Amino acid sequence: MTKKHILITGSTDGIGKLLVYRLAKDGHHLYLHGRNQEKLKNLKDELLRINDQIEIQLLVIDLSNLSEIENLVSDFLTKVKQLDVIVNNAGVYKSAKPLNADGLDMRYAVNFLAPVIMTYPLISLLKNSSDPRIINLSSAAQAPVDLHVLRGDRSDSERSTYAQSKLALTMWTMALSEEFKDTTVTAVNPGSLLNTRMVSEAFGHHWSPAEKGSDLLYELSVGEKYKGVTGKYFDNDRGSFGPAHPDANDQDKIKKLMDETRKILDRIN
């Protein structure tokens, strides 16, 4: 197997961590994001015990700090010249603080705006790859985007804003696939109520093992089965590509979402 250069956000817990273990065993070069430096360092030590030949770089940042992501990415670009896969896996449902420092809902900030800010500058590296891939972690929970909630004019429940943020991410996935046709861009529901800490905190129970999600992410990241299938939504509850929320392919709504997103990012930067 060709060794890939892979960036995974939210790599210290849940399906992100399980994915990283498998990629390390294969010997891929890993760029691991987390918000806790100690947990990241411990993860790196664990992975090097699995395979001491792999290259690992750590990216420490709280993705709710949107204004800091650009600095992180700028520094990343000075050190890294090759990237094949981006897995936007980090996500939040419950949060001790409902809003980030910019007055934006935490779920929108981490689940949608952070991947947008981080991914666009890194596409310059993906263009050097023979098989560039972007995988965005969506959800079976998807609800129509309320632009007032997105920009922080009003609030909504945790459940609603989480579902809105995941639909926003899916809509952006479709837009990204049209903008960068040489890159495989996929939105994925890794499976409903997997056995992860986030699910446990949010719902108190699970339906399926976390490996159901990490196995799919592994295939989408480095496998051949879905190579080149872009601009699609993979529903792992069905085990196949399928329809997302109807708004995910509504070009007018996608344009309104991205126009509003650009305004928000211009404001906070």
Provide the descriptors you would attach to this structure in a database record.
269 residues, alpha/beta, Rossmann fold, eight-stranded mixed sheet, 13% strand
Structure description:
The protein has 269 residues and is an alpha/beta fold. The chain has a single domain (5-268), classed as NAD(P)-binding Rossmann-like Domain (Rossmann fold, 3-Layer(aba) Sandwich). The chain has nine helices and eight strands. It has helices at residues 14-26, 37-50, 66-79, 106-126, 147-150, 158-179, 197-203, 211-222, 251-268, and strands at residues 5-8, 29-34, 56-60, 85-88, 133-137, 184-189, 232-235, 240-241. It has an eight-stranded mixed β-sheet, sandwiched between helices. β2 (29-34), α2 (37-50) and β3 form a beta-alpha-beta unit. α4 (106-126) runs parallel beside α6 (158-179). The model has no long low-confidence stretch (mean pLDDT 92).
Low-confidence segments: none
Radius of gyration based on Cα positions: 17 Å
Examine the coordinates and then state which fold CATH places here, giving the name of the CATH topology. Rossmann fold
The fourth-level CATH homologous superfamily is NAD(P)-binding Rossmann-like Domain
Shape: globular
- Percent of residues in helices: 40-55%
CATH architecture field: 3-Layer(aba) Sandwich
Number of helical segments with 4 or more residues? 9
What structural category arises from helix and sheet content? alpha/beta
Distance from first to last alpha carbon: 41 Å
Largest sheet, spatial ordering of strands: 3-2-1-4-5-6-7-8
Give the tally of structural domains.
1
Give the overall average pLDDT. 92
Q: How would you classify the quaternary structure?
A: single chain
Order of helices and strands: EHEHEHEHEHHEHHEEH
CATH class: Alpha Beta
**Strand count:** 8
Most strands sheet: 8 strands, mixed
Strand residue percentage: 5-15%
